[in-house]
Amino acid sequence: MEVMSRHHAPDRSLCLLLLLLFLLLGVPMAASTEQSPARLNKAHEDIMRDILSSVGSTKNWNTSSNPCQWSGVHCSSVASSAFVTRLSLPGCGLSNATILASICNLHTLRSLNLSRNSFTDLPSQLSPCPMKAELQVLDLSSNMLSGQLGDFVGFHKLEVLDLSSNSLNGNISTQLSDLPKLRSLNLSSNGFEGPVPTSIATSLEDLVLSGNNFSDHIPMGLFRYGNLTLLDLCRNNLHGDVPDGFLSFPKLRILVLSENNLTGKIPRSLLNVTTLFRFGGNQNNFVGSIPQGITRNIRMLDLSYNMLNGDIPSELLSPDTLETIDLTANRLEGFIPGNVSRSLHSIRLGRNLLGGSIPESIGNAIDLVNLLLDGNKLVGYIPWQLSRCKNLALIDLSSNQVQGNIPIGLGNLEQLVVLKLQKNNLSGDIPSSFSDMSALEILNLSHNSFTGELPFTNSTQSLKLCYLGLHGNKLNGVIPSSISLLQSLITIDLGNNELIGIIPTNIGTFLKLERLDLSKNYLSGQVPSSVANLERLMCLFLSDNNLSGPLPELPKWVMVNVTGNPGIILDTEENRTSGSMKGSQDDFRSAIWVAAASFVLGFSLSFYWAGPGEKLMPRLETLHCDD
């Protein structure tokens, strides 16, 4: 064996040498044989030069180069010539529809994208048009197209048609019946009316008709589209019961019926569509109970703003694949199910009639981002297990009957942006760790029984807090001067507490403050002159304290209430302490809660599934304090 090894060693060395020579000599040889792109067909080149005059500088096309190398242009070669097969000109500021006459002569074109331009009458330019013969994809979305939909005769190979976000109107009857290979149709955000079209080819896989004026019932003819994977009928005027025929859609993945006037019960056939992973039926008039097993396959369920009643099924929150659940604003009773899936990202059960305590098992949903249980009849304590959910960004437990202390661990949630616990029976000190929550923007603890001092120290400078609501508690001590470090604050509401001492002299350093409520406390001393430096101030409530001295001059548009401070000196000309001012403050407080409700936009999920294997994550969409 040793002799054989020695005998073959030179052979291996020779092979390595030959391989090295091949690598060294092969690179320049390959480079020398590389061919330049085939020259564009003369007729197509003339057409592209003509299009160039309309596109102008928006695409930065090099006029001296081969048009096949221009951005948005794709060519395919046949023999020694090349032909344009794909043309993408989105957002090029095009408005003159005569450019389509040139594009129509590209008889080999398979894909045309003219989205986000300003065309107004493109449909009338589609005949005669040689490109119809081969075109497979046509995107005219986000233009200014108006009028009724014309016929699409001659597009025998068209598979994708997107006319969304235009101003098209009228009924759709047979205009799309001559598209035998159509797979995807998007007519969303137009003004179409009449019944939902049912004369489209059965090859259809994606049908998006949202944001129109389609009316009448959901037609039975719709169920002939047996290849559908996406059906979106939201934001129309559909009414009546939903036909229970969804077993006709064995491939359906996304069903969106939101924002219509649909009635009746949730169709039970949805439970057996094993491919369905998103169902949006929110903002309708559905009644009855939630079908048991509806989340067995569905990963994203939105039935909010209906009239559903009864108990929440015990297994509803438990499936391992469940990601989001929204049952807001129904008439659901009973308890929140205790078996909570670890995969949940969003739980919205607010504004129902739910009782009992908050399940400790919610802490098992370690990926939870969004928890809204507001406006119910929940009792008991806030479970400390919530602090395990390190991704929590929005917690709303307001308007319940929850009691006890705030778990200290909530102050360690580094991703928390919104914490709303107002209108409960909470007590104890506000955790000092709240002063270090660098992501927190909205903190509302009003109308509880919190005691102790304000939890703001010199370390609060990094906070992004823009709404601070502590109204109606039993907080005591002084207002620390370090509160001025919270420079993002738009609203400070410390009214109806037991605060003492003076108003900090640096209160006027806030650059964005619009509302300051220190009413119904035991504050004394003068109103700092720096208040006049609050350029964005809209309302100043200082009533029912022990303040004295002159009130700084403020612009006339600022709503001021200083009643209940006998020592305050006002200029006769600027006497703002009329008897009606007290009522104005209460009215304004009601209005500010409405504003606060809209202040948080919450979380929205990507509307459509992105593709196989891609995990769908919630996207935070809060209104930030920055300008």
Describe this structure in words.
With 627 residues, the chain is α/β, with parallel strands linked by helices. Among the domains are: 40-138, Leucine-rich repeat, LRR (right-handed beta-alpha superhelix) (Alpha-Beta Horseshoe); 427-572, Alpha-Beta Horseshoe (Leucine-rich repeat, LRR (right-handed beta-alpha superhelix)), CATH 3.80.10.10. It is 11% helix and 23% strand. The longest helix has 32 residues, at 2-33. The protein is globular.
For the structure shown, list the relevant keywords.
627 residues; alpha/beta; Leucine-rich repeat, LRR (right-handed beta-alpha superhelix); 23-stranded mixed beta sheet; 6-stranded parallel beta sheet; 23% strand; disordered N terminus
Number of strands: 42
Multimerization state? single chain
CATH homologous superfamily label of the domain at 427-572: Ribonuclease Inhibitor
Q: On the 0-100 scale, what is the average pLDDT? A: 85
Please report the number of helical segments.
4
Whole-number radius of gyration? Answer: 33 Å
Q: Fill in the CATH topology of the domain at 427-572.
A: Leucine-rich repeat, LRR (right-handed beta-alpha superhelix)
CATH class group of the domain at 427-572: Alpha Beta
CATH architecture of the domain at 427-572: Alpha-Beta Horseshoe
- The fraction of residues assigned to DSSP E strands is 15-25%
Would you identify the regions where 5 or more consecutive residues have pLDDT less than 50?
A: 1-10, 14-35, 576-627
Please tell me what the overall shape is.
globular
Largest sheet: number of strands, sense, barrel closure: 23 strands, mixed
- Roughly how much helix do the residues carry, as a percent range? 10-25%
